[in-house]
Amino acid sequence: MQNRLFTSALYGILTILILVILASLVSSTILRFTSIEEGNFTWILLGFSFLAVFVGGFISGGRSGQKGWLAGGTTAVLYTLVIFFVQFLGFNEAFDAQQWLIHSGYLIAAVFGGIFGVNVRGESY
Questions:
Q1: Which of 28, 58, 73, 89 would you call most buried, defined as having the most Cβ atoms within 10 angstroms of its Cβ?
Q2: Mind telling me which residue stretches traverse the membrane in this protein (predicted)?
């Protein structure tokens, strides 16, 4: 179970990172070639981030086959650690209160994604 949980969480994180990179490319292209300002895009990108974490939890839960809440939660915690280490080691800044709230929301979204992922899969082996 431990090995399956970790590998499913890695698939979830990989899915999240791919979706976030694609969203970043699309949004930067839109910001570059239109007159839309970055302030107008903040809520859209935040919503897409929650969707990406939900999908990552969904993939993780589906791949684990059981305990989707744990697979999704593990995915969210590992994703938060990756973001924290990049921000802390790369920019020498810790999380502020707003970021802790956002990442707590990511945890909830990924847990629900993991639960739905296990239930959509429908079988455990």
A1: 58
A2: 9-31, 43-61, 68-88, 100-120
